[in-house]
Amino acid sequence: MDHEWGSKATESIVTKLSPYGSRVVFRLYWDVAPLACENFATLCVNGGNSLDICSNPKKPKPAPIGESGKALTYRTSSIHRVLPGFIVQGGDFVMGNGAGGESIYNGKKFKDEKAGLMLKHDRELLLSMGNSGKNSNTSQFFVTLAKAPQCDGKHVIFGEVVSGKEVIYEVQKHGSSSGEPSVPIQITDCGAYHHLFTPGAGSWFDRPDPDSYSGNTPELIIQIRVGVLAPTMTVAEKFRSALGEHATTVLIAAADVEGGVDEIIRLLQKPLENFSLDIVLAAPACASLLDTLEVPSTWTDAADALPKEVTAPTKGEVFLVAKPVTALAAIMEKSWVAKRDGWILSSSFV
């Protein structure tokens, strides 16, 4: 959480939201390591929402208590190890220092899954199981910050970061050569990400609420995840500057892409399919390239699994055209994210 309240007048409140957000979204490799995925996903949703959004209760049940006497959930657990250029590690909700951990499988350690062991730690932002040796998986996990070949064949890879890499990079800044974080880092909340229903990025803050027991109510102020398509990187940077802290951006400069139109389309379509982006915003000079893009079928499938009132966005709500100076206004007026009931966008939070 990164926010601050200040009063300049009797009824005036000033807020400062995190420029990098506070949410990380993972894609799990269920077909590679189902045991690790089931364990991780369950520890995320316990005490919160459900893997099946249509069966979500109005009031979540408390997380069950494990064999260790601790609640089986990542919620409020700490990131205990941060080695810059190597890994960010957490998941020890038993001891909080890397010496503990507990699985959902009656508290027992579970086996390494061969398909996950065979994958290579060949890039940053991979999600892998932490362990103390062969077949000793519990609840600990780590995210790679670079290639980590020393982990190959020893740790099961079972997912990757698809959104929120800025948060991981910020966490890395507070690491040390010993691995001990220079500041406390906590998982304040966790759950299952349901595309079109769950915001993919944003910052938590405590809104003053006199009716609340604690005096405040936590809310997520949403940052839109935007893929920017511009003729040059100079123009693309103007979009990033115009959107500021209200969006996380992936910039694509058409002039710099080797492979022409087909490669540009791939660079945009793939992150949309993987739910890494919410919208694509094109400069007028690149507007014609949007004609070949479509709302991915994965979005339609995601909508079919949600309550009936949630529908897949139209092409016009996903692919927008604007100049940098009108980019934010176009998003607020036309995008599907701005039209979602109950979602508070940072651009409307003033």
Sheet bearing the most strands, described?
A: 6 strands, antiparallel
Give the % helix: 10-25%
Distance between the termini: 18 Å
What is the average of the pLDDT values? 88
Strand order of the largest sheet: 3-8-6-7-5-4
Unreliable residue runs: 1-15
Oligomer: single chain
Record field, number of beta strands: 15
Structural class: alpha/beta
Radius of gyration: 21 Å
Output the number of helix runs: 8
Query: Could you tell me the strand content as a percent range?
Result: 15-25%
Order of helices and strands: EEEHEEHEEEHEEEHEHEHHEHE
The 3D shape can be described as: globular
Please describe what this structure looks like.
The structure is a single chain. The chain is α/β, with parallel strands linked by helices. Helices cover 20% and strands 21% of the residues. It has helices at 34-45, 114-118, 165-172, 233-243, 260-273, 297-304, 315-318, 327-334, and strands at 5-9, 12-15, 25-28, 79-83, 87-90, 126-129, 141-144, 157-163, 202-208, 216-222, 224-230, 247-253, 279-282, 319-321, 344-345. It is globular and about 60 Å long. Mean pLDDT is 88; it is low at 1-15.
